[in-house]
Structure formats: C-alpha cells, structure tokens
Amino acid sequence: MIRRLLRCGYRTGGLLLTLLVAAAACSPYPPPPESRIDPVTDVIHGVEFIDDYRWLEEQDAPETRAWIAAQNEYAETIVGESPLRDRIRERIRELIDIPNVGDTRHAGDYEYFTMRRAGEEAPVIYRRAAPEDEDAEEPSLDEEYEVVLDPVDFDPAYRTLLSIVDFTPDGDIMMYSVRLGGSDELEIRFRDVETGEDLPDRLPRALYGGLDFDDDGTGFYYTHRDRHVGPRIRHHVLGTDASEDTTLWGEEYGPTAFIGMNRVADDRYRIFSAQHGWARSDYFIQDHREGGEIRPMVSDVPAHFNVRFREDRLYIRTDWQAPMYRLMVADPANPELEHWTELIPESEHLFEGYGFIDEKIYATYLENVSNRIRVFEMDGTPAGEIAVADHLSASIRGDGEDGEAVLSLRGHLLPTTEYELDLESGDREILEPSEIPFDPSGMVVEQLWYTSADGTRAPMYVVHQEGIELDGSHPTLLNGYGGFNVAIKPSFSTTAAVWVEMGGV
Description:
single chain
C-alpha cells in the first residue's frame, strides 16, 4: 500500500487518516454516493443502540428511492457489463427459470392451481373442472386452462404477486392476496369466481395472517398486525364495512407480540397463541361450541410452545425444562400445564418437528446439521427410523395411502427431490425428478468444525470442485447467519451452484 501511495505522490509520514484519504484518492473508482446520517437512539434493557440510517426504513419515501437509485447506478460503474457477467446471468437464468405447477385446491366444481411456464415472470392462477377420478393426472404444462387471475392485469412489470388464500365452503368466492414488490404487507381481495368480478369487500394493504372463511362462508376470520398498536384477531361479515368487524382476541397485546387463532374439531375448540418476540410463547384454549371462556394453557412461562390438536388430544412441542425440545400431551378438558404428560422425552439432538402417519409419530431431529427422522408409536414407544444420508435436510408427510409417505430431501448439491416411500420396506422411488439442469459430478461437500471465541464448536459446510486445494487462493462466497432460533440447514442455492461450477468455493 505504501508503494502505491508513493506512486501517487504521497509521503509515508503523517496520520493514519492521511493514508486512508490517500488510498481513496488512488482508487480507480469514484467515491460512493454519500449517505445521510441521522442518528436514532434506542435504549433496550438499559443498553443504547444508535441507528444512523433509520430513515432508510421508509422504503417508499422519495429520499429512500433516490438513495437506492444512486447506489445501483454506482454499482454499475464498478461491475459494468462484460462477457463474464453475461455468462453468469445466462447460467442463473437456466437454473431458476424452471416451470412449475402448484398443488391443486378443490372448490365447488373446480380445481384451482397456480402455474408458471418457462419464460413467464410470475405464476398465473388457473382452474379446471374437478376430475371425477381421484387418480386423475395433475395439471400439465402442455395443456390450456381457464385463467382466473393473471398478475399482468394488475402490473405489467410483474412486480405484483397473486396468491390463493381460501375459498368459501361452496367454492363460489375466492379470497386472494396481492403482494407488491415482495413487501410484507398484503392487500386481501375477494372474487366471485363465476362472474369474475371482485366483491366490494377488501382489506387494505397491511400485515395479515390467519385468514380463514367461517363455516357458512358469510364472513372470515383474520389477524391484523399493526406495527404501532399491536395485533388483533377479528371477524368480518361479507357485505359490511370493515369498521364493524368484531375483535375476538388480542387487545391486551402490544406491537412486539405475534398472535394467532386455530379452529379445530369443526370449530369446537379455538386455540389462541401469543409469541413474545423470541423469548416465550403463551397458549389459550376455548370450548367454542359450549360457549366456554378462553382458558390459559400456559402463560408467563419462559419457554417456547407449539400446540396441535388431533383426535381429542393436545400435542405440545416445547423446550420447557428441555432445551432440545420434547413432546407432551394434554386433555382439552384439563389443558393447564400442570396436567400435561410427557410423550417423547428430550434427546441430545434438537427435536425440530413431527407429523402423524398411519397412527405413528414421525419426528424430525437435527443432528450435526443433518436431519434424522425417527418413528414412535402413539404412546411414545420408539419404533424405528427412516434412513436419511448425511448433509441433507429432510421432511416427511403422508400421501393419503396406507403404508406410504412422501419423503422430501434437499442438500447443497441436491435440489429438492420428493420420493414415494414404502413405510414397511423403506423402499423409495423418485416421484418426479428435479428439472433444474445441474450436474453435481466432480463436486464435493465437506463439513468442518471450528471453535468460536466462547469455546463453542460451530459447524461449517465447504462446497467445491474435486481436486481444489483449499489454500485461500480461490474466490470464496461466504455466508453466515445466527438468530431467531433459526438454523441454516443444507439446501440448494442456484447462486452457489454457479459459483462452484466456475471454480469458486
């Protein structure tokens, strides 16, 4: 660096600041655009945090848009167009421009689904007459279907995503969401699928969840989360003004809480949840059919809980007195914590989730960043394991046929692939091979361990071509994450795939 500064006419003496300014002056690139500093101080648990760029959170503000435009323009002066960039762009397009047909949803006399053909920017919502044969073929990319909603009619630039949310029980009205530019906020609309016209009812752009038509289709439930006031669970009657919506629950919670409601057993029970940041969660239950009060299952306990209902029993996955999680069970008639019993005890590996298939419990664990699937009888007795190779993420679900399941696997060199699994023999065959044009031949995945500053052993995956010496001379794409109790598990990345194909690490 000193020699380079001398070539620019600077002396070696002086302060470090002088060297830095001189280095900037020698840069072959112009200086980046200036970013306004406007400090905002938050005090959390007595600790001050200063955010100099809080103003950038106003993403639609003219100043923010101008800042983004200036940054993009500057980046183009650095990167610029080149044959290499064209090559990378084209290869990524090959990997991501894969046609897709979404799952079908039966409503009324039709099946609804999304489809995106190769070259299309966003999926279109279609429908077809519901097949009489339960074993009928899934919708095909080669066939033409009736268009229900096309995002190009909303935004020719394809920055708007449309998604099916729910249907009334008779299938006459479709609830759908409109998402602009990938934002968290949604607009909720309602379409009469016979006339093709939207109803006057509409939820304005905001944060929503738990959207669900009621049993007679005359209204719907929803959770509205206001960043300033807090979340509320409400019920809206179609044809009425939103100001008349009934608030069912949540008025005691502020903006840092996330709440939800799950209606189970044909709406006999309503299970309410409140998540307090990432510190703890509370659960409540109501015997709605009997007009019962909302009763606490667990509240103000410093732990995490997830409650599911199945055949008159409540199943609770929790890290209460079990940091690696366990499965407990309760009777809805006596749902309080003191009445819970342990079904599957904590193990040395993280208990991620579970499902019910053919009167057995299939539990997914995370062991050294690889998934393992263990099987238990309904009384918690161990009943075997589903074989899964190392360095893969895995999930399992029933496929509607006794003795069979769908096993989904993905990894750094394996795009998501689904297998039909014989639960008795363990035999499996690919349901539908991945259409992503990627060949992992000549590439390897290694798992390494390193020790962090506090002595914790942390895992790291390294993906590269065979024969490469990891001596620090190869361009490396490094990615790390930590927070929100989220683990970065093995998964396929088109960006990483292109990088490794080109000789990177």
